[in-house]
Amino acid sequence: MWEFFVRSLDASTIFTLAALGELIGQRSGVLNVGIEGVMLFGATLGFIAAQSTGSYLLGFLVGIAIGGLLGLMHGFFSITLGVDQVVSGMGIWIMGFGLTTYIGNPYTGPLGMPRIPSILGLSPFFYLGIALVVITWFVLSKTSLGLRIRSVGENPSVAEVSGIDVAKTRYLCVTIGGMLMGLAGAVYSLDYNPVWNYNFLMGWGFIALALVFFSMWNPFILLSGSLLFGTLWQLSLNPQLVLPGVMSRYIWRMVPFAITLLVLLIMSTKWFRIKWGAAKPEALGQPYVKE
Amino acid sequence: MSRKFGLLFVILVVVSLLLAACQPQEVVKTVEVEKEVIKTVEVEKEVIKTVEVEKEVIKTVEVEKEVKESATLAIEHFSIIDGTTWSGAHDRAGKRIAEKYPNVEYVYREEVGPDLTNPYAEEMIADGASIVVGNAEFMGMPLKDIADQYPDVYFASIIASDLTTKRNFIRLFPRQYQALYLEGLIAGALTETGNIGVVSAFPSVQVIRRQAGFYLGVQDAAELLGKDITVYVKYVGDWYLPPEERDIANTLITQYDVDVLTQQTDSGSPLDVAQESGIWFIGKDMDIVGFYGWSDTDTVAISFDTRWEVLYENIVKNWLAGNENPETVLYLGMADSMTLADGTVVPTVDIMNDNKVGIEAISPAALPLIPDEIVALVEQRRDQMINGVWDPFFEHAFVSNGTGLDLEGTPVPAAGTEVKPAGVMPTNEWLLSLFNFDLEGTVILE
Description:
The structure holds 2 protein chains of 2 kinds. By secondary structure, chain A is mostly helical. Chain A has helices at about 1-25, 35-55, 55-80, 85-105, 125-140, 145-155, 155-160, 165-190, 205-215, 220-235, 250-265, 270-275, and strands at about 110, 195.
């Protein structure tokens, strides 16, 4: 029971960190669908830095730094140049897939460093993830900075009139968001699965993206969604432990993704939006041009 | 509003906890009780008949062959080469052929999907390629479509389950099950819990055949040592899914008490989990310790190495000799070998670990844990297979487990069906394209 739950929580930590980064960006109105690419970069360069220097700290710092840089790049395209945010994000993902395969190939194989010690049987990043969720919620809900972020995500024109620098606020959010995505990648490659292989994330970034919509842009719902998805992920891999022979293993593997799709479908209905309130930032995905 | 979110948060956490709580604390094993059953067996009587036999008169006809002076071996790799055991072994094979034969050049393309197989092949043929190989079936098969357009070129593709051939479209695979049998002997001797885990890709003829070789080795070790050993196989869904491979390896260790782990997948995750958990790992396809340095012999008890160059040499020699009708199904094993440029003789497959072969390849940390009779048996069976006088698939009966892969016209035989008796060697065609069931006793975790 405990080992199974630990693995679920460890998996959920990756989703939490990456999705939190995406949530912060989206609350300011910037959508980054390149989350998988940012995570691949953070994971690969963090892995290379740690293996080359023997320092975990350096590995995580490199992962966070490259994530921040990619967030800035996405900000430059989507905020300064005003290009389509989906196109810019897709570009980052494709670049991440191709370039990390090229850069990381010579490093294929296990990390070969002693494992990061756990705290009470859990990865220390699990606790960090929870702390970051609380901090994010606090900043977004209880501070003037949070109010500025939410206002540029809802109505950038009004925010601008109120004296808020929309571009600066959005840049801040996409950079911090990118840093969290890079950290999520580094946690994956240095702690969760410390083995470098090409394209090793296999869609985890997209799951994190879906979790942001699932969370209705609320950090606590995001955390619980991550926990649920981490558990479902484990169950879908090992259905024989719970309901042996009930369904084909191929159908079980679909379950987490099918549930995500179902939740997104329900959330997109008018009934749900009225019942729970429309939490989606109104200006999400729309480039802001100062009039 | 905030109460609603709070309620949703609580519901989701509770659901997660309930789902996690659903899994059982321990695995219940089914114990099979042997029953003595008296069977009536029909015994064939030897009857000597006088039969007239037509004599076939063979005439010798001289055929002119155009002997070629040089060749270019072009390998299309489905994946990248660096850090991969499959394409890495093919690449090493191409280089070894070029080293041995100065008149043979080796060229390659990486990450070739089925849509690129033929465009790349035609490009390389235009540049002088005389032999074009696709190193996986899914992307090598399109080569048959252009084989007729280039009658002077040999095309070749790995066999996964389809055995289509043409005059100049060759299919090839090594008898890896022979080395896997030896690995099974060692794994069976090493397990203390009596549980061995296989992180596997998906049911296919290739996977089932390789697992059967390993399983037979484990069972022979169990019989010799009087152990009760269970082999658990858990399918991941594909050859390369690192996160899933890691989680399934962890499940095998924590839920099924596995203390020897192997894989029929391609990522390094199961190896890392074995190392982290302090259990033995059995490698595949290449010597991952000696060639890649991914681990050490404190974790990797044994591995096996595939020398595709033995198969490629056969193809290259035929092409250079101007043979217009080469053998189109190559299924070479330990009895077939090649002498490398440096004089080393390498069989098509062999157990190998930390650049050592044979008994010496067994990890120095594992060797003292393996009873002498098993070490002697590994040595004996290896020698016999190298000399071509013994084969695990000849020696053992094939009894179906009732699990496997339904093929068109060949459903999985019912559990308990003896598909092949002991002492009979299955045909290459059957082994390569119709062996679709797990052997009785293998535990497939659904």
